[in-house]
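Input C-alpha cells:
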C-alpha cells in the first residue's frame, strides 16, 4: 500500500509539472481562481503582463489585481460562468493591465474543489470591422484641418493623433500613442481638464479653454472640444485641440 501511494504521488507530481510546463509555454495569460475569486495558479505570461511576482499574485483577489477594484465587477465573465455553469467569453477593460482583452472563463471541478480557468487574449477584429475602422480613421485624421486626438474612453490614453496634432504638440507618432491624455496638459490644470472632458462626452459641459504642454515644455493656450465616436463596436473620444492664436 505504501509503495502504491508513493507511485501515485510521483505520477501526480509528474502530471502537475507537465501541466505547468505546458501552460507556461503559452504566450497569453492563463490563471485559475477558486469560486471566491482567489488566484490559485497562473502561468508565466500572467506574471509578465502584470509585471508582478508570484507572491504579489497568488492568493490575491483577481478583481483587485486585474481591475484595481475592491469587489467583483457586475459584468465579470467569471461570475457569469459560475452562475451558469457554462464557459463565457467577453471583451472587457482590464485597468490593472491598461488594455482591453477577450476574457474566456471555464468553470472546472478539481480534486481539491471547484474553480474558474481564465484565458486572456487580444480581441480579434473581423475584416469588415477593420475596414470600417480605417474609414473612420481617414475621416477623423487624414482629412481633418484641425488638430485631433483619438482617446480610449476606458483608460483615457491616446490611441492616435492626426498630423496637425503632432505638429502642435511636438511628439513623434510612436511617442504619443498610448500616452495618458492628462500628461498632454499643464500639470496645474489636469484635474480640471479631465473633469471637463468627461462632462463634454456626457453632453453636460461646454468648450474648455485651457493650456497644453508641448514636448519641448511650452505652454500653449487652446480650446478643447470633445465628443464620443463609435468605431466598430468601441467608443472613443474625439478631441479637437484648437490653438487660441489660430482664431485671431
Amino acid at each position: 500500500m505504501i509503495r502504491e501511494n508513493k507511485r501515485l504521488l510521483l505520477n501526480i507530481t509528474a502530471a502537475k509539472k507537465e501541466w505547468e510546463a505546458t501552460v507556461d509555454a503559452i504566450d497569453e495569460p492563463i490563471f485559475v481562481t477558486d469560486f471566491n475569486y482567489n488566484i490559485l495558479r497562473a502561468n508565466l505570461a500572467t506574471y509578465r503582463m502584470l509585471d508582478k511576482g508570484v507572491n504579489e499574485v497568488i492568493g490575491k483577489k483577481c478583481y483587485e489585481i486585474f481591475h484595481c477594484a475592491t469587489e467583483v465587477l457586475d459584468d465579470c465573465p467569471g461570475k457569469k460562468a459560475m452562475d451558469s455553469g457554462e464557459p463565457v467569453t467577453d471583451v472587457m477593460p482590464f485597468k490593472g493591465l491598461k488594455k482591453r482583452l477577450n476574457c474566456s472563463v471555464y468553470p472546472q471541478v478539481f480534486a481539491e474543489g471547484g474553480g474558474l480557468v481564465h484565458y486572456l487574449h487580444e480581441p480579434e477584429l473581423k475584416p469588415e470591422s477593420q475596414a470600417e475602422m480605417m474609414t473612420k480613421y481617414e475621416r477623423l485624421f487624414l482629412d481633418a484641418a484641425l488638430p485631433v486626438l483619438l482617446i480610449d474612453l476606458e483608460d483615457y490614453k491616446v490611441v492616435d493623433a492626426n498630423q496637425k496634432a503632432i505638429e502642435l504638440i511636438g511628439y513623434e507618432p510612436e511617442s504619443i500613442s498610448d500616452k495618458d491624455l492628462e500628461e498632454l496638459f499643464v500639470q496645474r490644470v489636469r484635474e480640471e481638464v479631465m473633469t471637463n472632458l468627461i462632462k463634454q462626452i456626457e453632453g453636460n459641459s461646454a468648450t474648455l479653454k485651457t493650456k497644453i504642454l508641448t514636448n519641448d515644455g511650452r505652454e500653449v493656450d487652446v480650446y478643447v472640444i470633445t465628443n464620443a465616436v463609435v468605431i466598430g463596436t468601441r467608443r472613443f473620444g474625439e478631441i479637437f485641440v484648437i490653438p487660441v492664436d489660430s482664431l485671431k
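The domain at 127-247 is CATH 3.30.450.20 (Beta-Lactamase). The CA atoms of residues 63 and 72 lie 6 Å apart.
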